[in-house]
Amino acid sequence: MKQLQKTSKKISAFAQYKSLSIQFSLDGFSFYVSNSETKEPLLFTKYAFTKTIASPELLLEKVIAIFDTDKDLQQDFTSVFAIHQNNLATIVPNELFDRNNLAPYLKYTVKTLKTDFITYDLHNIIAANTVYIPYVNINNFIFQNFGEFEYKHHSTVLIDKLLSYSEQDSEEQFFVHVSPNYVDLVVCKEGRLLFYNSFNYTTKEDFIYYILFTAEQLQMNPNYFQLTFTGDIEKESDLYDITYNYVRNIHFINPIDSFFADSEDFSNHSNFILTS
């Protein structure tokens, strides 16, 4: 059985200096190559796993196999940026943050081990930090291949991009970023973060429950607020259908100058974190 499904979009353009951005999770691996000088996109490739990988160790095996066979990854890059996508994270406001004592921030929401490496990202827009557990083995592999590189948690990148995207909106904006097994919920208004959390889901009923529960806690009426989807969701899906049964105003995010505007394989909203 085929264990990897590869989909790619490539622009036939030469660039002497290239930047690489990669995003990985237990469900897949994607990478994006751009011109280091002009920031123009050159290539996007996505590998979707047929089954969720059981552990970071097995994920590393997949990543190594991809690097060994994909020639687009076997070149020199001027910079490398990695995005760790998992739900092993929490947000801590600056006034409560102690960078020398990170473990307590995760103990109530994430099952941690004494051997876990815990780090943090400083947000660009809000006065807060994302505390999380990265895939250290993947980081080590990337360092072995490329040397120094930058990395962040996917929620850091997602929140900062959504805050920038919605900074002019005077109404509350409810964003739902969909992954195969969990969902990120982001509520913001005029560049301010009002709510963020991520939830595991198995069924479409789980999925809509978390959306409606969050809306109820924030006193947002499903008949009036605007819900905007990003990520792995399409209009012809059970997740969309059940959401539309309860929420009246549903949209897909429409990034400016999206690389996928004319793509047959990728939706405009599908890879907002990595490419927008």
UniProtKB/TrEMBL annotation:
Pfam families: DUF3822. It comes from the Bacteria. CDD domains: ASKHA_ATPase_BT3980-like (cd24013). InterPro entries: DUF3822. This is DUF3822 family protein. It comes from Tenacibaculum tangerinum.
